[in-house]
Automatic annotation (TrEMBL):
InterPro entries: CLN6. Pfam families: CLN6. The keyword Membrane applies. GO terms for biological process: lysosome organization. GO terms for cellular component: endoplasmic reticulum; membrane. This is CLN6 protein. Keywords: Membrane, Transmembrane, Transmembrane helix. It comes from Climacteris rufus. The chain crosses the membrane at residues 17-35, 86-106, 113-129, 135-152, 164-186. Signal peptide: none annotated.
Length: 222
């Protein structure tokens, strides 16, 4: 699928660049999936995603203490290395695909009804990628690059076709969803501690372990 997206580019890319992008994408996704398979099992065992690795009760009491370093290394592979290797090529491929979504024919710049209905699910998907993957900077730079390309192509008399409009609208709605998500959790002190940087975008899994995981035992006891 990634190769099909790249082939839509109006310019022929070097094969080495294409191969490196796809290989890096696959390796990053694999690292992420392996890390997640372990982390999700930890969640079922009581791991609290809104806390750091060393602050988690089930990790803090591990013996020997060197095991904690192993779990921190796993967290690094999953949340940082895996995400970077996965998402950087992915958004690069999306932008390359976007460069081929322009047409001089105004009639082709219309989205069918089915595409309009799918914009919502598509936006939710990108919202989850950005928030759970903690890749807002990568997303927003890609979005700005898309906006700059649209304005540049407009001067040439080119407009987005239906495929380009679908991706562009998905990114716009994604930005709105992120803004609503951040505004909703803006005053959450625990999540603020987990994400102390200038860019505050909590992960959905952190929100789940903090506010939702305790609801299930309560319902069962009821």
């Amino acid at each position: 699928l990634c190769l099909q997206l790249i082939e839509r580019s109006p310019k022929t890319l070097p094969r080495s660049m294409v191969y490196v992008s796809i290989i890096t994408f696959v390796m990053g996704a694999s690292i992420h999936l392996v890390g997640d398979s372990v982390n999700h099992r930890l969640i079922f065992s009581g791991y609290q995603h809104h806390l750091s690795v060393r602050e988690n009760p089930i990790i803090r009491n591990l013996k020997p203490e060197t095991l904690i370093d192993s779990f921190e290394l796993l967290y690094y592979y999953d949340e940082y290395l895996g995400h970077s290797m996965w998402y950087i090529p992915f958004f690069l491929i999306l932008f390359i695909y976007f460069t081929g979504c322009f047409t001089p024919v105004a009639e082709e710049s219309r989205m069918p009804v089915a595409a309009l209905l799918l914009v919502g699910p598509s936006s939710l998907y990108y919202w989850y990628l950005v928030t759970e993957g903690q890749i807002f900077i990568l997303y927003i730079f890609t979005f700005f690059a898309m906006m700059a390309l649209v304005m540049h192509q407009k001067r040439k008399g080119l407009v987005l076709d239906s495929n380009g409009l679908f991706l562009f609208y998905s990114f716009i709605i994604t930005l709105l969803l992120i803004a609503v998500w951040v505004a909703w959790l803006w005053n959450d002190k625990i999540l603020r501690k987990k994400y102390p940087g200038v860019i505050y975008i909590p992960e959905p899994w952190a929100f789940y372990t903090l506010h939702m995981s305790n609801l299930q035992p309560a319902k069962e006891s009821f």
